[in-house]
């Protein structure tokens, strides 16, 4: 029997932060704009109340700062009993109401099983809002049923940038 040979691990290069006076092609490594993430888990009661009570996914970044959402990953665990909905999608949005992306809930929260999905923010023109939270909401009718053991988890990847002109 022959042994399998695996390649040697690759040594990752060191990350070098570039001083603003020396901006070059490595400028994407600046701490500003680096992807971060948050994890939020909603209970069954929070899911049912989502129509009237938004859930904060990312805190407001501060004056003259903008949160840019890049991707979300979510897991719906409705194995206790499925939630009911009728065209009641979830929306990831800025606190002022600008939609970032829409999560289709049919087949996600209505199956009575564990379901997971991943979405990137759409490549469309979006006017971000400065110094506001990123939140999850249900802008339509409330979800129904469910079970106390159900939960919905969402991981949000984002970066924070200055809301000022480049110079």
The biggest sheet, with number of strands, parallel, antiparallel or mixed sense and barrel status, is: 4 strands, antiparallel
> Structural class, judged by helices and strands?
mainly beta
Architecture per CATH nomenclature, i.e. the level-2 architecture: Sandwich
Give the domain tally.
Answer: 1
CATH topology: Jelly Rolls
- Please provide the count of β strands: 10
Contiguous runs where pLDDT drops below 50 for at least 5 residues? 12-30
Distance from N terminus to C terminus (CA atoms, Å) equals 64 Å
**Strand share of the residues?**
35-45%
What value does the average pLDDT take? 84
Query: Within the largest sheet, what's the order of strands?
Result: 1-10-3-7
Summarize the structure in words:
By secondary structure, this protein is mainly beta. The protein has one domain: Jelly Rolls (Sandwich), CATH 2.60.120. It has one helix at 44-49; strands at 36-43, 55-58, 65-77, 83-84, 90-94, 99-103, 114-120, 134-137, 144-145, 151-162. The strands form 3 sheets. A 4-stranded antiparallel beta sheet has the order 1-10-3-7. The relative contact order is 0.31. The model is unreliable at 12-30 (pLDDT under 50).
Summary?
With 167 residues, the chain is mainly beta. 4% of the residues lie in helices and 37% in strands.
């Amino acid at each position: 029997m022959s042994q399998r040979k695996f390649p040697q691990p690759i040594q990752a290069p060191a990350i070098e932060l570039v001083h603003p006076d020396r901006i070059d092609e490595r400028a994407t490594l600046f701490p500003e704009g680096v992807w971060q993430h948050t994890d939020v888990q909603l209970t069954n009661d929070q899911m049912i109340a989502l129509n009237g009570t938004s859930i904060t996914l990312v805190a407001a970044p501060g004056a003259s700062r903008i949160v840019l959402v890049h991707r979300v990953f979510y897991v719906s665990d409705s194995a206790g009993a499925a939630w009911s909905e009728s065209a009641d999608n979830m929306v990831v949005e800025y606190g002022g109401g600008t939609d970032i992306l829409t999560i289709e809930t049919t087949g996600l929260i209505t199956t009575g099983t564990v379901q997971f999905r991943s979405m990137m923010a759409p490549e469309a023109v979006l006017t971000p809002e400065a110094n506001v939270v990123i939140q999850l909401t249900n802008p339509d009718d409330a979800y129904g049923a469910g079970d106390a053991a159900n939960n919905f988890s969402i991981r949000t990847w984002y970066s924070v940038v200055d809301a000022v002109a480049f110079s």
